[in-house]
Amino acid sequence: MQYIPPVDIAAFRDDQVKAGNSRGAANLVVKTLRIAFNLAVRQGMIPTNPTEAADLFAVGQQTRSTLTREQLGDLLKIAGQEWRGMILLCVCHGLRLGDAARLTWVNVNAERQSQAFHPQKTARGANSKPEEYPMHPGLSD
User: Does the pLDDT of residue 41 top 90, yes or no?
Assistant: First the structure.
């Protein structure tokens, strides 16, 4: 069986960043490889896990900020009609882009002026119920 030295794992990690991935994404690749190599160690296929000796990148805590009204206005000026709707859904309702993209007319209750859906991040299990949010008045246009 061929041995993979930790230096090759580190080089692979570095190549991920050179290819344009973030340091956090490169760390995730190494962590994923660790799972596979740990399984190989437990099954006696290899003596040690080479990913354990490869350091992960130091990644600082990222802070997110909200758009200012000016930034939102600038974004809406250049967005096409379809993207305007997506932007307004996300901004006015606090939806994640994926949740907004999955909405259909079935999710909209015109009578109640609301939308009900299962957010992807929290929709778990057969007994999960849809969350209902009031529709922002400016969004109905």
Answer: yes
Q: What is the DSSP letter of 65?
A: -
Contact between 25 and 16 under an 8 Å Cβ cutoff? The reply is yes
Could you list the residue range(s) of the whole structural domain that residue 97 is in? 69-139
Amino acid at 61: Q
Please indicate, yes or no, whether residues 74 and 25 belong to a single structural domain of this protein: no
Q: Is the pLDDT of residue 1 over 60?
A: no
Single out the residue of 122, 64, 114 nearest to residue 92, CA to CA. 114
The answer as to whether 104 is a domain residue is yes
pTM of structure: 0.50
The domain total for the chain is 2
Q: Is the pLDDT of residue 121 over 80?
A: no
**CA gyration radius, the chain:** 23
Residue 1 within any structural domain of the chain = no
